Each structure stands twice: as C-alpha cells, then as structure tokens.
What does this fold into?
Amino acid sequence: MLDNLLEQLYRTAESAGIRILTDDHCCQLLAWLNVYGGGVENVVLDTKLRTDIFEAQRRLNLYGGEIPNLELLPKLQGYIKSLSDYNNPPEWVKDVEKKYNLHIAEHLRPKNN
It folds into this structure.
C-alpha cells in the first residue's frame, strides 16, 4: 500500500511540475544498483528504495526493448564509470547508501589495519 501512495505522490508532484527525485539522484541510484545492487534483499524489502528505483527506471525509460532517455543516459554512464574503482567508491555512493540505510559498498572498502 505504501508503494502505491509513494507512486501517487511522485505522479501528483510531476503533474505539478515538481520532481521529488532529481535527475542526478535517479542516475546515481541506478548506477549504484548496477554495480553494487545485485542480490540485495533490501531492494525487495524496503518500500522507499524499491519505489525510488522504479521511479528512476521510469524516468530513464530503462525497460526491456525501450529506447532509454537519451538526455540522461550519458549522465548514468558517467556515474557507472565513476565506480570503476570498486573498492573506493565516490562520495555520492556513501550518500545513496546513507539515505536508504544500506552498507554494501562499505564492506568492499579496504580495511585500515
């Protein structure tokens, strides 16, 4: 039910010309999911995270067989490239994980001995 309410909030805001999630955040979230998110149970269990991922997917038109949003695709690709050092993620990864209470990339960082 909360999923539906959040989706309705996003659609209502968008019809008023307001985007609750920025384009940058949508691209960051999908880049994080692409690199770190495989097999993450939180995506399935956390309503806010799942709804935001679906919203980002919708905004970038990333569905099987569809033409992606060509304006945002280079931005998404840039965020994915910024994750080339899997063990040393940029600050935005920490921000995404903090927002959704995730700790995936944190476990991949080198430990200080």
Observations:
- Helices lie at 2-15, 23-36, 41-45, 47-60, 73-81, 91-99, 104-108.
- DSSP finds seven helices and no strands in the chain.
